[in-house]
Amino acid sequence: MWLGMMMVVGWAAFDRKEVLIHERTAGLARLITSAHELIDSYRAQVAAGELTREQAQQQAIRNVGALTFDGSYIYIFDDAIHLVWHPTREAGKDMSNFQDDNGLYFYRELRNVGQAPEGGTFIYNSYDKSSEQDVSRLNYVQRVPEWGWYLATNVYITDINAAFWSGMLKLGGVSLAICLLLTGIMSWIIRGVTTSLGGDPREARTVVQRIASGDLSQPLTLKRKDQSSLLYAIEGMRTRLVDVMGNVRQASRDIDTGTDQLNQGNQDLSARTEQQSASIEETAASMEELTQTVRQNSDNARQASELAGEVSQTARDGGKVMTRVVETMEEITTSSQKVTDIIGLIDSISFQTNILALNASVEAARAGEQGRGFAVVANEVRSLASRSANASQDIRTLLETSHGHVNQGAEAVREARDTISQVIESTERMTSLIHEISVASQEQSEGIEQVNVAVNQMEQVTQQNASLVEEGSSATELLRQQASALESEVAWFTLAEVPERSKAPAVAPTRRTMPAPQKVSAPANSAPTPAAKSGKVAEPALADEDDWTTF
Q: What is the fold of 2-171?
């Protein structure tokens, strides 16, 4: 604080000094500017031909010499550092080798400073013999390049230095009084702060740094009956942090154990889910094959039904043909009977012809020679009648045989018709059964298709469950890593050894071996035995183990 007040006082005094020097510099600049403007006016008269250069310079020297500022005057020297005009020195004097008591070539320094277009200043310190003390002068110089002149002036700034030191003393006194007052106030504040801290602030800082570095093992030494200081609050915070860090460590260990068990259970569930997914995939494949088989059977049954319908229609057509054959055979039998009657008539005619021929022969024999020709004719007629009778007998025999065959054929045709009728009935029943089988196969195909869709949905759900199990495993692993990271973070704190609280042992989950999947196997009714739940973990406590010296 004292150093700060001294710096403030010094800054204020120096600022005041700079302001005063700036005011003096501005006055000198105005004086030199006025002289420069005066010389410019004479130069203009020379340029106008009103004056010669020598006349203008003489008048300018006379008028510039009359200019003053606060007791200061203007003197002039040229580029060769020869005096052009000086109130106390003769003109034309060479001042290039003029040195002060400090060995400074004063006029050379003035010429160097005056080389700048706007001129320049410098402070010159010397010893004043009249007052027998060191004095400081502020010099200002500016060059007139057209004539090769340097306009210079100066002003004493010793009074500024005196004012500076006077101000320093005044401000120092005021600052001393303020510092004494502030010292008393700060002493009172420090005493109150020390009481609020409960001890030396350095001790509080050391304690806070030790806690910040993670060392919670060392208790604080408090004043007697201290229950409101900062150190008392810090000790309470340290004690609470010890409890919290111990609980966090125990909780992180419990989380680590639980996540290990949960991870093991997720792995078992994932394995069972994969086995179930494989079984469902094989079941889906088998159901797809079964669906194709049933669909093919349904198509075959439909084709068989169509073929049976065609066979039934063919059998009906055959029955109709057989009926017409039976009718034709009956007509043939009727015609054969008529032919038999005709043959009987022919036999009767042949018999009567034979009798007539025999009578004719008898009559011819009676006639003798006259009836011989008639006898020959009668003999021929009897021979023809005999052959006709034989032929009719043969025809009768053939007709009787044919009639028997026709009767047998008609009987066979009737039996074939009856058989075809039975075939038609059987075919119709078979067609009906095949149609029912086709309908049942179609319904079965639709049912199996629905089952196949359900199996596919089960497969998708199982795969989703497997994905969820994998996500759960990832989340569990992440939780375990975070618990390990938390334990690592908490291990940064150093705790005192405290008794370890009891902890209920966790029960590991049981594993059940799933049977190998079988193709087209019915789903098992019994679900796998769930993993046993771990026992409830007791409240976290601080452990009393050898490695608990650092937490």
A: Beta-Lactamase (3.30.450)
